[in-house]
Amino acid sequence: MRVASFHVKDKTGKQADVSIVPLPGLAGGELNNVNRWRGQVGQSPVTEADLAQLAQPVQIAGQAAQLYEQAGKTPNSDGETRILAAILRRGGTAWFFKMTGDDSLVTEQKPAFIEFLKSLSFSAATAQTGLPPDHSPIDTAALQQSQPAIRQQFGRG
Predict the structure, then answer these.
(1) Which of 11, 105, 147, 151 has the fewest other C-beta atoms within 10 Å?
(2) Closest Cα to residue 97, out of 79, 110, 107?
(3) 114-142 core/surface letters (b: 16 or more CB in 10 A; e: else)
(4) Angle at CA 2, nearest 5°, toward 19 and 75?
(5) Exposure of 60 by Cβ count < 10 A (0-12 exposed, 13-18 middle, 19+ buried)?
(6) CA nearest 9: which of 84, 108, 86, 94?
(7) pLDDT confidence of 154, banded at 50, 70, 90?
(8) pTM to 2 decimals?
(9) How many Å apart are CA 22 and CA 87, to the nearest integer?
């Protein structure tokens, strides 16, 4: 489901993963996604009213978007971790741009991540369909049918 993915590594071996994932429609909505990311770093869920306070405005490909930053510990680990996740909605597609990894590395790389978001552009074909030209169509019916099983697998049933 990723259209792009790469790793960031510093001299000491600390790592972060960067991904770009397009999903059809609302893709669960911002509140559900933010709360899922919060759970991934051991934080409690927030309410819809809290969500606006967590959102940081960013520009992605010249369009207004929201950046959410969550920090904590990965469950079953002592390591501090951080997630930067930006959401852009365009053409019926929710685009997720995420950097996940070691807390200090992600914190250090946040300005570069934001500059990366600003530097992105969409081709004319992507602007019309919401997906890159070589991306296969997303079977939304199959995706919706698999969501209960996915939530159960990851403890979100």
Answers:
(1) 11
(2) 110
(3) bebbeebebeeebeeebbeeeeeebeeee
(4) 55
(5) buried
(6) 108
(7) very low
(8) 0.75
(9) 10
